[in-house]
Design goal:
There is one protein chain. This protein is mainly β. The protein has one domain. The protein is built from no helices and eight strands. Strands 1, 3, 5, 6 and 8 form a five-stranded mixed sheet that branches. The two termini are 18 Å apart.
Length: 100
């Protein structure tokens, strides 16, 4: 997959990736979102802001176990070495990692 020409906003951000848990309303609840794998992505444009992973709360509405692998950054002409290079930030998200 390739990501290029990032436009528009999500969570007030212009970014290559944004993930959030929203409250579904009364008696519906939300989350958790778990075991997410984001692999083999060529990011030609990371956007102008951070890439937020935002859970609803620290309990059952969180985001858990997110693995990034082989995220190629055109701006660096190589795969990312850490989450900062792909601008990932977390709120109520745990066990978020970039591997080999």
């Amino acid at each position: 997959m390739e990501i290029e020409e990032v436009t528009g906003l999500h969570l007030g951000k212009q970014t290559w990736l944004a993930m959030s848990v929203s409250d579904g309303g009364t008696n519906v609840g939300a989350g958790p979102i778990t075991n997410i794998k984001i692999w083999d992505i060529a990011v030609r444009d990371v956007g102008s802001t951070n890439a937020p992973l935002v859970g609803l709360d620290s309990g059952s509405g969180g985001i858990q176990d997110v693995t990034f692998r082989n995220i190629w950054l055109k701006s660096l002409n190589r795969p990312a070495n850490n989450l900062a290079e792909i601008k990932v930030t977390t709120t109520f998200a745990t066990n978020v990692k970039l591997v080999g």
